[in-house]
Amino acid sequence: MITGSGSQKVVGMDWSKRPGKPEISCDAANFENQTLLDSSSFVVVHGAGSFGHFQASKSGVHKGGLHKPLVRAGFVATRISVTTLNLEIVRVLAREGIPSVGMSPFSCGWSTSDRKMTSADLSLVTKAIDSGFVPVLHGDAVLDELQECTILSGDVIIRHLAAYLKPEYVVFLTDVLGVYDRPPSEPDAVLLREIAVNEDGSWSVVKPALQNMNKQVEITVAAHDTTGGMVTKISEAAMIAKLGIDVYIVKAATSHSLRALCGEVRGTIPDDWLGTIIRFVDKEIAST
Amino acid sequence: MITGSGSQKVVGMDWSKRPGKPEISCDAANFENQTLLDSSSFVVVHGAGSFGHFQASKSGVHKGGLHKPLVRAGFVATRISVTTLNLEIVRVLAREGIPSVGMSPFSCGWSTSDRKMTSADLSLVTKAIDSGFVPVLHGDAVLDELQECTILSGDVIIRHLAAYLKPEYVVFLTDVLGVYDRPPSEPDAVLLREIAVNEDGSWSVVKPALQNMNKQVEITVAAHDTTGGMVTKISEAAMIAKLGIDVYIVKAATSHSLRALCGEVRGTIPDDWLGTIIRFVDKEIAST
Asked: What keywords are assigned to this protein (chains A, B) (predicted)?
């Protein structure tokens, strides 16, 4: 996301001690002669992956009940796990010269009521962006007014950030090429290239054109996933698309995700691009 | 700080994978049969120690100028370093059964103007305490309205928390027995047992009774300390004492710090207790 970095050496921003190296590495001279890279404003939100889901599901943090010893312990354990991952991601970005700053939703005061987001001071995220940073948020254990606590998923955070920040587009990075009509491990799984979202929030597959595609789409959720897996991802993506913001679901670390992140698939989708685009279809425009 | 824990097994709340152990350790059954420990409400604030001071002083984050590449990189590097330490402290407390939650001042939206604290939503800390958690805050790099950024020290954070939360007492844990009249490494250094703070914020040594003690007190600050070292610590402690809250400066991991933390040195100071008490002296009461 940093333009013009081709000619400049990347200067890392993680000056921690590394195992096996006695000295902290910080070449201040590299910064003195450097002009600030022209970086687009962006925000990174990550889920928990193998960090957090075990702790949350084992204790039932997502179901609430903070007065129970197990849930309270699970809340603490979940936060330790997700903030460990957050710190690693901030560190990796900083090493690549991206001025990343971790922002934990719990610390930011984000909370829910009956598992729906109620309170979030999004101006803190805006301030961090305006100061030249890349905020890195994550799915987190948060307080809930009705059930005492719950898990706030990264997907829900993205939707709220998108509604507030109105970005040009949102990219979901995943470990498969995009959304399939059935679990992608199955041999006949078909990659859905374009999903149209309607005014009422319902969605249908536009590309590839298959009869009764909707009915054929099977969605499974892993047993340990406390935040809904692909179902949540698509429904949150559909809600973002309804705001007029295109959503691209792509495989991380591929040319497809790079192109999506650089904004190359806005407008007409290139034929050689693999991924799923989720777009709002304005019926009035569509019918003309 | 947890009472009644003598008869109960400590059940850890850090369920992360440990090096050399393939399985995550979480004995849920231990929690099912456990009643919640009766823990006093408390807050932990830590500084940066060897984490953060190097990064901050090397880049001059405390002096501001976030538009400069080196300062911006230093801000990122400082936050990585202090949040790494914060996570370790949260983890150590959780392993001892203390329901600790990390709360980064930057993420909480704390900010300064001309290096003085202006904005801090302290209600987030109260909410965490009321939910049964022990918030763990730390010295942090924050945004500054006038000079773009600065370092907010743990000592300043404690003062603001004390003014808001009105705790019974505040304990500063350090690596020496308390405040000395000169660097404690010097052979003739005398431990100051009691310091009285006056209405105007000035302070004088009450115990031991030495002539012109004030004049004899030498205070040095390490070159790498961006937040003022012992000078800041005493002046912040004096400001807390002025609120009518006793401050104890004690050596960590000793019987003296344990007694101070348990509130045993409130009122008359035991003769066999070693540490420095900083107390407000109400002149009107003192003169009667």
From this structure: ATP-binding, Isoprene biosynthesis, Kinase, Nucleotide-binding, Transferase
